[in-house]
Amino acid sequence: MPHATPLIATIVGSLALAFILGAIAQRLRISPLVGYLLAGVAVGPFTPGYVADQGLALELSEIGVILLMFGVGLHFSLKDLLSVKAIAIPGAVLQIAFATLLGWALAWGLGWSMAGGLVFGLALSVASTVVLLRALQERHALETDRGRIAVGWLIVEDLVMVLVLVLLPPFAAILTGGEGDIVMPLLITLGKVTAFIVFMLVVGRRVIPWVLHYIAHTGSRELFRLAVLAIALGVAFGSAMLFGVSFALGAFFAGMVLAESELSHRAAEESLPLRDAFAVLFFVSVGMLFDPMILVTSPLLVLATCGIIIFGKSVAAFLIVRAFRHPSGTALIISASLAQIGEFSFILAALGVDLNLLPEEGRDLILAGAILSILANPLLFAAIDRLKAKKADTTATENANEDQLVKTSLSNHTVIVGGGRVGKELINYLKQESLPFLVIEDRENALKHLRGDGIEVIAANAADPRAIQAANVAGAKRLLVAIDNAFEAGQAVEQARKANPAVEIIARAFSSDETDHLKRLGADRIVVGAEAIAQGMLSKAFPAQTGTA
User: Fold this and answer.
1) CA gap 191, 243 in Å, rounded
2) What is the pTM of this model?
3) pLDDT attached to residue 497
4) Of 4, 99, 429, 494, which is least packed with CB atoms within 10 Å of its CB?
């Protein structure tokens, strides 16, 4: 049996190099996405050395898109989707129209046909699913109002692109002098999409949660994990084959119908590792498409293409969101999220070339625009973060994460990091004992609940030195780190220890490695999940012996 196959070589080579370059990028304080993209360039056909299988990489990356959209659907609901339809539908359509017009104008200046300009403009108008969702996840914004608007916007863009891909062949036949019927393909596609949505809301809404509940009752974690993956991938593939919708859209609806089940959080946890791994393969596959020589042969055209993607789309999205009376913070985040292109752009460009509508130069410009806009996207977000920092006195009604961090008047108090399930238990005890405390939290939904209960909150990430200063950790008695992410918890512990060497720090962990990590950064005591549960069970079973009678 051979020890090297194209599939294994592609996966190993892509992930290993992505890890190395991603770690270097992180060390240089830039987004790891840059490292992933450069890894793709390094293993692509346009650079010397090892060349990974491009076709396999693209197919593997589709799994990442499916799992990512499934995960988004698990945190979304039909109510959330309908709540943003008033801005997502007209906003996406107007932004697509504006970006298409800009792309068509550039194509017209280059002497391309009207059809070629239309394909070129449409390819520049649609954002990448993976990049948009990754940007929102990094800022804990998926479950916020702006996150719901961005996801709704993305769904509308996907639906528009599905229609475009179906209508393009008959449209090309008409332009080339042949016979073509646009009305029937349009009606058939609309019928299929409608049938898919109805099927998922009527049948899928009952069958998918039932299947997972049945598997959960078997007590097999392995089967449950397998069921989650089978549902995500199976529904995505089946919806594409039977109803003609995209993999991403099918996976999103699969997650959304499962979101109503109490098992949705567990399903999200089980799919997370594979979701992250295959998402990395997406960025590697994008990098493989990039020919660096186009920067030498057509630098001005590449610059103009990137200008449409990064600035033209951003300005249009910003103005549209503001026109719907949403705050500038929301408009900035959404415009930055959409300032890139990805999966559908590649598919549309390839179809345009195959139909002799788009010249090969147009495809090369689209690919160059995609990779450069993805590279620039983290920088755009960094610029927005700096802009928000300079305007820290902006009113809190724009967004909880943009609140000016006012230093608390509390002293000799307890600081709780995280207002989740563990944080709520700590809050209830401190309230019951009338002890002074405050909470550091950056998730908007949690912030709303905490403020609704009249609890003092610092709306920021605990790893931010400004949050530590605003919470007056220097004058605090203790810090209770209640979040379950050991990396973020470690950063919070480290910042708190710098601010107050004498503060008592207690954190939670799930393994000995996490315990060692947190202690090394300055935590005094660690509560390990398994040990705490065991102690709780013993106190219930043997109250006299454990002193809890």
Assistant:
1) 9
2) 0.66
3) 92
4) 4
